[in-house]
Amino acid sequence: MQLALSTLGCPDWDLERILSVGRDAGYDGVDFRGYRDEIDVTRHPLFTDRADETRSRLESAGLSISALSSSITLCETDDRAAHVAEARRLVEVGDTFDVDRIRVFGGGDPEDRSRAELARAGGETMREILSIDGAENFQWVLEMHDAWTASDDCQQLLDELPADNVGVLWDAAHTIRLADETPRETLDALGDRIEYVHLKDAVYEPDHNDATDDGYVYAVPGEGDLPMADVVAALRERGYDGWLVFEHEKRWHPSIADPDVALPAFVEWFRDQR
C-alpha cells in the first residue's frame, strides 16, 4: 500500500512544510483537501497560475497527489450546477498534476426524499459530470459518508452510478463507528469497488468539547479505540495495494493533536503492522 497524508491534518501549513514533513515521515503522496484558508484547491494559484511550480516541488520531494478531495455532493440537486462547475475545474487541475482520482460525496437528506430518489438524482449528476471533456479519464471515488455510510446504503447509490468511472472511498472510521460494520464485513460487501481508503483513530469521549456528533475525539494513531490494525490486516488479506490515506481532521477539530505529532505517528504505526 502507498501512504498519503490529507491536508485536513495540517490546515495551517504552507506547501514547503507539507512536502518536507511528508517526505521525511515516509509518505508517498498528498491528498489535497484544501490548502490553508482555501478549501477548494482549484481556486488557489498554487494549483492554477503556479501549477508548474507546485508540480516541480512535488516531484522534488518525491511525492505525488494521491487524489483531489472535492466538496461535490451528487444527490443535492439544488446545487447541481455549482457541483458540475467544480468538477470542471477539478478535471483541469487533475490533468495538470496527472491525478487519477477525485473524491465526491453522496449527500442529500433521506428524511426529505427517499434513498431511491436521492440515488437517481446522484446518478443524473454523475452522468452530467462525466459529460465534461476529460472527466472520463478519472476515477471518481464516492466516500462512504453521511447518508451513504453503511454498505447496503452505499450500494444503492452505486447502482445508479456508472461502474466504469465510479469506485468507493472506504472511510473505515465511518463504517466502524456509524454503521457498526467490522472491516471484513465492509470488504465482503464492497471490496470489489473499493479503490481508495481513509484511516484515522479516535477515542470515545462524548463530553469532550471537540467530539464528533457520535461522541468520538480523533486521536494519534494507535492511541484510540478504533480497530485500525484490523482494517490494514483485512486490506492485506484481500490484496489491496492502493492508497491508504491518513485523514487527521485538524481543520474541523482544532484541539486534536498537532500535525507535527500525528502525521509522523501514522507512518510509524503503519510500519509496525507486519
Automatic annotation (TrEMBL):
- Residue ranges of every copy of the Xylose isomerase-like TIM barrel domain listed in the record: 23-271
Q: Please give the Gene Ontology molecular function terms for this protein.
A: isomerase activity
SUPFAM superfamilies of this UniProt entry? Xylose isomerase-like (SSF51658)
Instruction: Report whether rRNA-binding shows up as a keyword of the record.
Output: no
Answer yes or no on keyword rRNA-binding.
no
Q: Which UniProt keywords apply?
A: Isomerase, Plasmid
Q: What is this protein called?
A: Sugar phosphate isomerase/epimerase
Origin species: Haloterrigena salifodinae
